[in-house]
Amino acid sequence: MDFKPEYTKEQEEFRKEVRAWVEENARYPEELGPIPLSSGDMSREMWLWGRDFQRKLGAKGWYYPTYPKEYGGGGLSGDKDIIIKEELRRVEHPVAYSMVSMAAPALLVYGTEEQKQRLLKPMLRGEMVAWQAFTEPGAGSDLASLQTRAVRDGDDFIITGEKCFIGGHHEPDVLWAPVMTDPDAPRHMNLGAFVIPANLPGISIRFQNLVIREGKRAVTFEGARVSREYLVGGETQGWRVIQSSLEIEHGGGGSVLPEDDPIVTGALEFCKKTLRNGVPLSSDPAIQKEMVDLYIEANVHRLIGMRNHWMHNNNVPGTYHGSQNSLVGKYTALRSAVKLLNALGPFALTVDPKWGALEGKVEDHQRHTLGSDHRGGTIDVQKVIIARRIGISRTRERAAPTRAQAG
Amino acid sequence: MDLSLTPGQQMLRDAARDFLTREYPRKVIREIDETESGFSPELWRQMVDMGWVGMILPEEYGGMGSSFTDLGVLYEEMGAACLSSPHHSSVVLGGLTILEAGNDKQKKKILPSIASGQRILAFALTEPDYGWGPGSVKLAATRKNGHFVLNGTKLFVPDVQVADQILVVARTSSRGSPETGITLFLVDKGTAGLSSRILEGWTGDKLSEVIFNNVEVPASAVVGRVGGGWAPLERVLEKASIAMCAYSVGGMQRLLDISVEYSQNRIAFGVPIGTFQRVQDHVIEIVNDLEAARWTTYEALWKLDERQSDAPLAISMASVIASEGFPHSAEAAHRVHAGIGIDKEYGLYLYTKKARSLQHYLGDPVHHRKQVGRLLGM
Ligand SMILES: Cc1cc2nc3c(=O)[nH]c(=O)nc-3n(C[C@H](O)[C@H](O)[C@H](O)COP(=O)(O)OP(=O)(O)OC[C@H]3O[C@@H](n4cnc5c(N)ncnc54)[C@H](O)[C@@H]3O)c2cc1C
Which of B342, B353, B361, B366 to mutate against chain A (most A CBs within 10 Å)? Predict the structure, then answer.
């Protein structure tokens, strides 16, 4: 066993190459203004800079490092993927470069060769931003009950309906959306999965005012006409197709989290530095317990994510693993908010430049984690999936195919 | 034994509930919350008209001499609506401190105008060296030519933005045990050298930093005895804590009501989500938190009204339960609601941020646990 990804000489060389490139290309231009607490507050200029940066990254094959080279990926090993992510993390960006598209894994499995060239390639090269448009006001956990309709009209489909909790910063190029193609067919056999150009007439996008700063949007389709070329997989195969997206979204691809999570490390430092009646906050046993557990839970989450990353990139088949990563992440997020509030008190609730803990990052975390419970499937839903895959539920199911099975 | 409310308390509860559900639904509460001051003069006037503001103060000072249980009944309804008002700062903390510690002249002059809502007090105890015990009070008050000069910072003080005066817990001496050097001052907000600003963020009420830079006040600004502020204050803090427990009980009741309603009406997989045992678990967590908080709070209110010697223990116990239970219930309610719960229009978040702020207000659960331990002789 070896938990260090950079163990060969060749990989050390690769790290040097990445670092030099990052130094040269990833420096955020200060004149665009200070990086906001949340990417949701990013200005248009910052976002445009970020998109430009994504394209540069994509051109190197480093936006989706482990995806096949012929479709714009890097064709690299999982270890090199980690090296890239670590090096990118060394510089601060307004845009999370990890905002990769969930459409890519499904396109890789189910797209035609022509679609891979036309849609997958620009996504992997960072040229096409896809927002995941799955959820509807009446269909969240029960995604299969969605009502947005696609009616065939010659070689096109006319799409009508509403999606919510979508996106994304500023605007997308395409929307990755399952919609109902056959209302008479049984559940799970009635959907088609589309990559819908976002600028089509009949599509409007509205900002949703949420507790989290990150912007989410409601998308309305009023008779938007989409060519058949944008249908991925068969006309009623959509449910199957989107499972490959959900598998990745539910954590199947794993994650490479830093050992020094900025919030955890920052909060530890805060408690060591902050004096209460002349003694550091961190010497109080009650505070110590909160902070130590915070540290431990973050590491458990990191390791579960690392496990999945390793499995995913070495074609090790998984069962409950994806949802477990997601579930542990959700628990960790929620509990960390509670612990930080317990330990830091009202300092955790203000963005005041003088008094807000970690320059207001903790306050942002307090809000942000209220969404973490639900995005990409709720805690309950992850548990349902885990139970099925362990084999203790009335329903049995297996993991959906992702890249590992695609190649 | 009779655990029911008196007819008068039932009337108070029903009137408050009717009024607040009619006039202050979540949408209106959110609008008030989003104003800069977080204060609605209209609401404050209505609270005065309904007799809520003076209620707890004695009749001779323009109040109604209500019991703490009465106050608890009202606070429960205010919590259910997630109301923000300076009631707690001005009347419970401010008014009761004047009543406990002030001299006759101060009581006669100040209390009637508090009871009538014309005068609003803020209450400033906590500082950057945060804590609710006497040891955390560092703001220095030094004598100078028969006056006092105040220097220091008060932090996370509610309602400063709407207050006329601030009741300041200051230190006049650092000799002896931490309690001995505490003195209370009533300071006009306009006094030279005093400045304040609201701290932006995710707080239930607007909280401010208040800086005292050579703020000179006359000796008549002292409330009670120089160096004798902590003992009366401690009694007031107990009462203020139990009022907030009742507020939290109301908040948790509403979180339960909202969550039950949503569980019954939201359909997933063809059935109401309340039929899923996992969703039931979230709702059950709320109902358990709620009832634990409710009955520890009621018993403490009763003990307080009956002047029982173990009332402080009961209050600290209720404070542990309520200050943990309210935010915990809010989190469970978020789990029931999933996506819609973080939509501002839906307004669940108002309870969440209120609960998270209240968790530390008047002492966090650790502080109250220590109190319980101390009162149990540990
Ligand atoms: C921050 C954030 C970002 C998001 N981003 C996106 C995005 O980019 N794209 C997108 O398409 N969607 C997005 N979503 C939507 C998200 O996927 C849904 O919120 C989520 O799937 C839950 O659906 P819902 O909100 O409709 O809740 P519901 O499905 O109505 O769930 C309500 C409650 O019922 C429970 N429940 C439902 N079914 C079951 C069951 N079978 N067993 C047990 N319990 C059950 C849930 O756990 C929850 O407690 C986002 C949501 C959030 C909060």
Answer: B342
Q: How far is it, in rounded angstroms, from Cα A379 to Cα A369? A: 13
CB contact under 8 A, A276 and B129: yes
Residues touching ligand 1 (Cβ under 6 Å) are: A 132-135, 140-142, 165-166, 212, 216, 371, 374-378, 380-381, 384; B 266, 268-269, 273, 276, 278-279, 335-336, 338-339, 342
A391 plus A269 within the same structural domain: yes
Give, in order, the Cα–Cα distances in Å from B289 to each of A290, B323, B337: 21, 10, 18
* Superfamily, domain B121-227: Butyryl-CoA Dehydrogenase, subunit A, domain 2 (2.40.110.10)
CATH of the domain at A367: 1.20.140.10
Dihedral of alpha carbons B91, B94, B97, B98, sign? negative
Q: CB of A167 within 8 A of CB of A217?
A: yes
Alpha-carbon Rg for chain B, nearest whole angstrom, is 21
ipTM field: 0.96
Q: Are A278 and A333 members of one domain?
A: yes
Q: Which residue of chain B has the CA closest to A383?
A: B278
pTM for the model stands at: 0.95
B231-375 to CATH, choices 1.20.140.10, 1.10.10.10, 3.30.70.100, 3.40.640.10 = 1.20.140.10
A contact residues 373-402, partner B, Cβ 8 Å cutoff? 373-374, 378-380, 383-384
pLDDT digits (tens, 9 = 90+) for B329-358: 999 999 999 999 999 999 999 999 999 999
